[in-house]
Amino acid sequence: MAANPKVAPMSAKAFSASTIVLFLICLMYGITYIDRNNVSTVASIFERDLHLTNTQIGLVYSAFAYPYLIFQIIGGWVSDRFGARIGLTVCGVIWASATLLTGTVSSLAAVLFFRVMLCLSPKRGRRSPCRRGR
Q1: pLDDT tens across 108-129, in order?
Q2: Which of 72, 100, 77 has the alpha carbon at shortest distance from 87?
């Protein structure tokens, strides 16, 4: 008599939602780190393409630092007001769009705009749900 072994149903997911979110945030950290630090590496290329002066290049470098201060406060308020899930989702979409569109710039104003939008990455000023007791 052939025994028919029962196969346990796959009720457990390979990765939990928390693990996927953690992976995506870590990936965004890595991309933002590379982007932030490679601006100085490619400055000579986009300086020539956009016909920028050294002063304007310095402005591009600082366009990431000053809005960071402002978005710390705004990000904390957004997280408190709407919750971490909505805050991270909205900021992640803005960050991803700014990252993709940075390569399409054709003026100093566009470079500065997208550099400021990169300050909205989920790590910028957002409070972790763990810190809020959720």
Answers
A1: 999 889 888 877 665 544 444 4
A2: 77
